[in-house]
């Protein structure tokens, strides 16, 4: 005898949305790793504020993509993070757009060589400003809202904040400072706000290219003997946002074991 079935029987279960109702600000969200982080957190139900500095078209396209999946769930916001006085307005934009702020992802970064002997004050201001100063002052601007939300800050550090990269001393210094900032903020903002960092290894090569021989040399220094992906970094951010309520002040290396295989 055939059994009667309901209309919903056999239907796919709805996708889990652990971040439904949460608002996330991702800096440098228009492209590359930042865009993948934004897509990943959006897929978990979050509303996204997509910060950009100059990639307006990419930010608008990403916002359109996310809003196509879930209407009125993403907005782009322009800001030069080196203009410290403008950072409170960026936080206010996120709050105004979605009614609060739950998670700040400090992803925006500048990365280029600064070999000793050729370092300029402009290099210092840019690399330290984007990778360290901006995350500090954004956290300060967001602190009260994150406190209200019992929120989270995720900083995008780098394994070269622990092991310096040759010819990149200023970048390495900036990321080392960001790791200490993560720990310091965890103490300053606890118990209501958690602060953690993700430290990627070789997950996405710079756009100006890395010699294939050097790429292979770097990969062979990892325990897993392969490069990672932006999705690996995004999943680490999602872990901190959804599955780590008792984790703060920690740095998660997403590097295929490179940091243990020098």
Averaged pLDDT? 93
Question: Under CATH, the topology is which?
Answer: Rossmann fold
CATH class: Alpha Beta
Structural class: alpha/beta
Computed over alpha carbons, the radius of gyration is 19 Å
For the largest beta-sheet, the strand count, sense and barrel status come to: 7 strands, parallel
| Topology as a string of helices (H) and strands (E) | EHEHEHEHEHEHHE
Report the helical percentage.
40-55%
In CATH terms, what is the architecture? 3-Layer(aba) Sandwich
Number of domains: 1
Beta-strand share of residues:
5-15%
Q: How many β-strands, per DSSP?
A: 7
SS summary, helix count: 7
Judging from the principal axes of the Cα atoms, what is the shape?
Answer: globular
Neighbour order of strands in the largest sheet? 3-2-1-4-5-6-7
Unreliable residue stretches: 1-8
Distance between the termini: 67 Å
Give the CATH H-level superfamily: NAD(P)-binding Rossmann-like Domain
Q: Care to describe what's here?
A:
The chain is an alpha/beta fold and 262 residues long. It has one domain (23-260): 3-Layer(aba) Sandwich (Rossmann fold), CATH 3.40.50. Helices cover 42% and strands 13% of the residues. It has seven helices and seven strands, in the order E-H-E-H-E-H-E-H-E-H-E-H-H-E. Strands 3-2-1-4-5-6-7 form a seven-stranded parallel β-sheet, sandwiched between helices. The protein starts with 22 loop residues before the first strand and ends in an 8-residue tail after the last strand. Residues 1-8 have low confidence and may be disordered.
């Amino acid at each position: 005898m055939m059994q009667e079935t309901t209309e919903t029987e056999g239907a796919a279960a709805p996708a889990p949305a652990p971040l439904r109702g949460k608002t996330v600000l991702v800096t440098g969200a228009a492209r590359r790793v930042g865009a993948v982080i934004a897509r990943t957190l959006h897929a978990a139900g979050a509303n996204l504020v997509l910060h950009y500095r100059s990639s307006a078209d990419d930010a608008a396209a990403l916002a359109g993509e996310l809003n196509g999946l879930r209407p009125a769930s993403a907005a782009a916001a322009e800001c030069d993070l080196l203009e410290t006085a403008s950072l409170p307005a960026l936080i206010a934009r996120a709050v105004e757009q979605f009614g609060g702020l739950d998670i700040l992802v400090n992803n925006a970064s500048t990365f280029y060589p600064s070999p000793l002997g050729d370092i300029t004050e402009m290099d210092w201001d840019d690399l330290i400003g984007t990778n360290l100063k901006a995350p500090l002052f954004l956290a300060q601007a967001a602190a009260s809202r994150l406190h209200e939300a019992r929120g989270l800050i995720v900083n995008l550090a780098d394994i070269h904040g622990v092991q310096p990269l040759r010819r990149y001393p200023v970048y390495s210094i900036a990321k080392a400072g960001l790791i200490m900032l993560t720990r310091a903020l965890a103490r300053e903002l606890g118990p209501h706000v958690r602060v953690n960092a993700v430290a990627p290894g070789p997950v996405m090569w710079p756009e100006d290219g890395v010699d294939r021989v050097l790429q292979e040399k770097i990969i062979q220094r990892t325990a897993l003997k392969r490069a990672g992906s932006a999705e690996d970094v995004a999943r680490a951010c999602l872990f901190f946002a959804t599955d780590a309520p008792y984790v703060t002040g920690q740095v998660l290396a997403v590097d295929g074991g490179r940091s243990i295989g020098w």
